[in-house]
Amino acid sequence: MRDFERSGFINSQPKQGYNAPMRAISLATIVLFAIVPSTFATSGLKADADAILAKASKTTDIRAAGSAPFLLLAKVRLEQEDKSVEGLYAVAWAGSDRFRNVIRFPNFTEIEVVTSDTRYRQRSTEAMPILIWELQRLMNSFVRFQLDPQDKITSIKTRRTAGLDLTCVQVQGPVENTKLCLNSVTNELQTIDKGMSLYSLESFREHYEFSDYRLFASKKFPRQLSFRGWKQRTIEVRIEKLIQADAFPTDEFTPPQGAERSHFCEKPENTGELMPSTGNAIPVGLRDVEVEMYFQVSPLGGVRFAEVIQSSAPLKNKEILNWFVGTHFPIKKCAGTPIAYETVVSLMSGH
To answer: Same CATH topology for 2-261 and 268-348?
Structure first.
């Protein structure tokens, strides 16, 4: 694993054939019962969905407690409009509280080491490039999709597509809708669709696909993952190596020199909600503007750093940024200790 790091995004390059590496985060999938009725009754949908996700973790989460230590190496190609870049994604995992993640692209590098309840992170830039963010969303969505208390399960249905019997779970959240479709026979996750519309699936902006499942230890794991959406962004991931590790080098989990240190836990507790300084009042000039913004949030929920990634009205980006000055974000805690985090907010102002 350490050797991979000696070989780093977001340099503009002409499109070329797929041949790229990237970093990995834990991967689990969502599994559904092999035999289900075509439509579940309205009552109990949340419980049914919870059961589906619990069964998924048991079947496919290679990072579940008691799983075998492993090394994972993946190649990734990131592409936006007419530019593409290739990089590396790698993981050395000895347990949920002892692992090392590496992302390396030409103009972006991140090394993350977790030991016990502490995270050490070294990054080549202050902000995370949006395609790297989408890459993490791709992996995290596949890994541990969990229902929020505010989520509403609108349907669990079966359908036949391209010769496959699929079971699809549709979730309506406070801001984002999600639709997950699984192979009803093999229990393998096939697709995830995400979007901001609260009322229909027509405005979904992000599409994830998972394929080429193979056995790893007692689990199943996809070797091909992809993403597309948001202004012609695409991500192609190919798992090149996934092997059990009997032992690791003595320095495998040594933090990189000068790394930023913070508290770590797999499932931080969330309190509070997103509260712009202007409340729900949107400036007239910003109505019906589609915005995507990156934030670094302090342990107390304040904004440390903010950046407009893209908007449908770029001449208003400064006004958009000012609108978020003083915004208070939910507080995340690990064992009662507030932690810093980063997030991307996608919204259609006025909706």
So the answer is: no
Q: Report d(CA 60, CA 159) in Å as an integer.
A: 23
**Amino acid identity at 209:** E
Helix, strand and coil percent figures for the chain, each rounded to 5: 15, 45, 40
Surface-to-core class of residue 124, CB atoms within 10 Å of its CB (0-12 exposed, 13-18 middle, 19+ buried): middle
Tokens of 97: 């509280």
Whole-angstrom Cα distance, residue 219 to residue 28? 9
Q: Does 268-348 carry CATH code 3.30.2420?
A: yes
From residue 313, alpha-carbon distances to 225, 283, 292, 317 in Å are: 32, 14, 11, 7
The three-state secondary structure class of 348 is strand
Backbone angle region of 82, left / alpha / beta, with phi > 0 → left and psi within -120 to 50 → alpha: alpha
The CATH T-level fold of domain 2-261 is: outer membrane lipoprotein receptor (LolB), chain A (2.50.20)
Entry pTM: 0.76
**Cβ neighbours of residue 70 closer than 8 Å, sequence gap 6 or more:** 62, 91, 93, 216, 242, 243, 244, 245
Are residues 118 and 261 in contact, defined by beta-carbon separation less than 8 angstroms?
yes
Tell me which residues of the chain have a pLDDT lower than 70: 2-43, 141-146, 175, 196-204, 231, 277-287, 348-351
Residue with tokens 């393998």: 188
- Retrieve residue 248's tokens: 């690791």
Residue 178: closest CA among 154, 213, 158, 149:
154
- β-partners of residue 191 are 181, 209
> pLDDT per residue over 82-104, tens digit each?
899 999 999 999 998 999 999 99
What is d(CA 234, CA 257) in angstroms, rounded to the nearest whole number? 33
Full DSSP string of 209-272: EEEEEEEETTEEEEEEEEEEETTTEEEEEEEEEEEE-S---TTTTPPPTT-EEEE--SS-EEES
Q: Answer yes or no: are the C-beta atoms of 282 and 135 closer than 8 Å.
A: no
Backbone angles phi, psi at 142, to 5 degrees: -75, -35
Domain ranges for the chain, please list them.
2-261, 268-348
